[in-house]
What we know:
With 99 residues, this protein is mostly helical. The chain has one domain (17-96). Helices cover 75% and strands 0% of the residues. It has helices at residues 17-50, 54-74, 78-96.
Amino acid sequence: MADHGTVEYATATGNDYPAHEGTYHNFILFTFVGIVHVVNLLFGLAVGGVMGQWFWAVPIFFLAIIGAVASLLSGSKTPSYVTFAISFLIFAFVGLTPH
């Protein structure tokens, strides 16, 4: 049987726990921003392709790009939340108006 000694992870050289946390934070942020960006693009495609309102779809596409870039550059999820809310309001507004 192997000899079970003390756990040396916390004292081992080469462990950079803050770097691991930073990488995890960046991965979660990138994943969140990517998902919200795709949802915003789907709102734009639904407004333009399904509802036939390309005039309202183009601003959704621009908002999606601006929100994703702003979120990734700032490291905050707030721009993605804001662009999602605005895109959803445009989607709902166009969907509720008679054609």
